[in-house]
From TrEMBL:
This is Glutamyl-Q tRNA(Asp) synthetase. Binds 1 zinc ion per subunit. GO terms for biological process: glutamyl-tRNA aminoacylation; tRNA modification. Its cofactor is Zn(2+).
Length: 297
């Protein structure tokens, strides 16, 4: 498929019911894709089975259908793609772009400087595994250079993975592959051209772009939406059961999301979610997002 064809995606984690913040991401990515006459895919990011709430993946998909957020193609589950992630890890190891790490979190905290994203891994295991300690994770080698991301809403974002993040984990101690690796591999495999998601993931994007460069993959366009937060400024979270949306009353939830995103609202209550999308898709304006409030809901 040509990369000139718009392909977007919504990629929830099955850690609870769909809530207002995740519905904002779903609606924003859906409207952007449909406004550009593109495809909209759904991917369940269920890599970390320890955090998964049984039944929540099916519940999320059922909610999307209730909101008439109809996706293209089959739903992809990351838990079924671990062999591909393992192949990429081996590829990076063979190219000396990654290495085994046996450091515990306690050891890292004791030795690391603290950066904007937390402890900066000091490269302890770059020269080889410490004797007598089993290897538990794989880290990607980072370089001291700026990675620039031009976000469609947030503007230019700059990050130096080498100095601000350090060598980051691509396969965890427990054997699960890390989000940063899986999302890059899957976006490339699914030929995603445009990633529309919450602004809380903006700081992860340079790491993903860095990995794309190492693997020779094309970089998607990025648009990070304003975050829905509570009165104290804390991001709404499924883990905290914050503001779950009600699929049995879809129109009120969808109209609230459109209002939050500063999109025009229909002059009269639509008869159905499908009727609302007929109104909203041609009127989607990303420039309106600049005035979208992230004040408490």
């Amino acid at each position: 498929m040509s990369r000139t064809t718009y392909r977007g995606r919504f990629a929830p984690s099955p850690t609870g019911k769909l809530h207002f913040g995740s519905l904002v991401a779903a609606v924003g990515s859906f409207l952007d894709a449909r406004h550009h006459q593109g495809e909209w895919l759904v991917r369940i990011e269920d890599l970390d089975r320890t955090r998964e709430v049984p039944g929540s993946a099916a519940e999320i998909l059922s909610s999307l259908e209730a909101f008439a957020l109809h996706w293209d193609g089959e739903v992809i589950y990351q838990s079924r793609r671990t062999e591909r992630y393992a192949e990429v890890v081996e590829q990076l190891l063979a190219a000396d772009l990654a290495y085994p790490c046996s450091c515990s979190r306690k050891e890292i905290r004791e030795r690391a400087q603290i950066g904007p994203e937390g402890p900066i891994y000091p490269g302890t295991c770059r020269s080889g595994k410490k004797p007598g300690i089993a290897t538990n994770s794989i880290r990607l080698v980072t370089q001291d250079r700026d990675i620039l991301v031009e976000d469609r809403l947030q503007g230019m974002f700059r990050q130096n993975p080498g100095t601000e993040i350090g060598d980051f984990v691509i396969r965890r101690m427990d054997g699960y592959h890390a989000y940063q690796l899986a999302v890059v591999v899957d976006d490339a495999w699914q030929k995603i051209t445009d990633v529309v998601r919450g602004a809380d993931l903006l700081s992860s994007t340079p790491r993903q772009c860095y990995l794309q460069q190492l693997l020779g993959l094309e970089q998607p366009n990025y648009l990070h939406l304003p975050l829905a937060v509570d009165q104290s400024g804390r991001k709404l979270s499924k883990q905290d059961r914050d503001r779950p949306v009600e699929p049995k009353d879809p129109l009120n939830s969808l109209l609230s999301v459109l209002a939050f995103l500063q999109q025009p609202l229909p002059p009269e209550q639509p008869e159905s979610p499908e009727a609302l999308w007929q109104w909203a898709i041609p009127r989607w304006r990303t420039e309106s997002l600049r005035s979208a409030s992230s004040s408490g809901l």
